[in-house]
Amino acid sequence: MESKLDIINQFAIEGTVDTVKPLGNGLINDTYLVKTTGDATPDYVLQRINHHIFTDVDGLQRNIVAVTNHLRAKLQAQGMTDLNRRVLSFIPLATDPSLTYFFDGESYWRLSRFIPDAFTFDTVDPHYSRMAGEAFGRFQAQLVDIPETLVETIPDFHNMEFRLAQLREAVEADAVGRLASVQPIVDDIMRRAENMTAAERLYREGKLPKRICHCDTKVNNMMFDADGNVLCVIDLDTVMPSFIFSDYGDFLRTAANTMPEDSPELDKVAFRTDIFEAFTEGYLKSAREFLTPLEIEMLPYAAALFPYMQAVRFLADYINGDTYYKTTYPDHNLVRTRNQMRLLESIEQAMPAMRAFIDAQSKA
Ligand code: GN1
Ligand code: MG
User: Fold this and answer.
1) What is the best residue among 29, 214, 218, 223 to mutate for testing ligand 1's pocket, by most ligand atoms within 8 Å of CB?
2) Atom of ligand 1 nearest to the CA of 50
3) What is the whole-number distance in angstroms between the Cα of residue 219 and the centre of ligand 2?
4) Which residues contact 244 (CB under 8 A, 6 or more apart)?
5) Residue ranges of the chain with per-residue pLDDT less than 70
6) Quick check: CB of 262 below 6 Å from ligand 1?
7) How far apart (Å, rounded) are the C-alpha atoms in residues 111 and 120?
8) Residue 141 near ligand 1, beta carbon < 6 Å
């Protein structure tokens, strides 16, 4: 592999590289902050794209460029300024402006402009949740008329039937002998399988649409400025056609959990209805214009679906011997699974109240 400096210099950057340091805590890609000398030139974010997971890097980058160009044009048309902080921009190769990634013979790399004076949070209060809801709703609304056809960067990424099939395969194989210890959780999951695959059935019946979604709306994938205003949505690898439930549900999964997704303190894991209410209000404000009544009615289902899907994915990975998610200790994926199942139970209890809240919102 070439040095990071050699890699960075493949791109059409402004200025001279000063330092390169690790950045963030993603579970999939490796991310670095690239500082250039002096204040006159931008800093950059360098990422090694995990091409074992994103096997179609070319399609992935084409998606992202289409999305960011579309968003940028919309913002510009609205007279928005400071566009470099409101939408990500990917840097083309110095030798081929049509490409925004570099293959060094081993890994795929990309470079984007670092957004200065911007912040991400791992936890949010109701005020920030309302703004995040509005921003993710706006993100979907702005992409409703994107002319390009986006690829599924991970086929069947949020397809619940497919995720359950993967779990069944993992259970069948029991590759590292972990099944016996987790059989009760597998049973808990399978008991809910029929209910949780409702969206796929409704899609086949033509009752539920797919739209362009972000598909990784973890709370820390939104940037705020120093005054607490939303700047932009980041981490666009998984932007693809999906049910709108993806964006609604994954935000609540992370933001409305009283604890981080890998906390082993299960007694403290619970669903925060104040976050749910604020996020839902914000989301409906900007998304209501294009949502169908069925999509709105199913929002509580979406809130349950994502901890459930994440539990299925973490558990399958645990049974497979931790081949997908980065882990820092042997039972990490199991702890994550239990946490998500506990969150799911808390959401199941909140279901009637959530339905009532959404009904009231729809009439408002
Ligand atoms: C992964 O890399 P990160 O942390 O943004 C995963 C998401 C999961 C999440 C769980 C491509 O996202 O789907 O919800 O971990 N991304 C992919 O923390 O699998
Ligand atoms: Mg992320």
Assistant:
1) 218
2) 11
3) 9
4) 140, 211, 213, 287, 291, 295, 302
5) 1, 364
6) no
7) 19
8) no
Sheet with 230-233: list strands edge to edge: 118-119, 222-225, 230-233
CB distance 238 to ligand 1 below 6 Å: yes
Ligand 1 atom, smallest distance to 220 CA? 5
What tokens were used for 232?
């932009």
Which of 287, 333, 328, 288 shows the shortest CA–CA distance to 310? 333
pLDDT for 1 equals 58
State how far the Cα of 208 lies from the Cα of 243, in Å rounded to an integer: 8
Q: What is the pLDDT of residue 42?
A: 97
pLDDT confidence of residue 228: 87
pLDDT for residue 300:
98
pLDDT, tens digit (0-9, with 9 covering 90-100), for 92-134: 999 999 999 999 999 999 999 999 999 998 888 999 999 999 9
Which ligand has the minimum distance to the alpha carbon of residue 246?
1
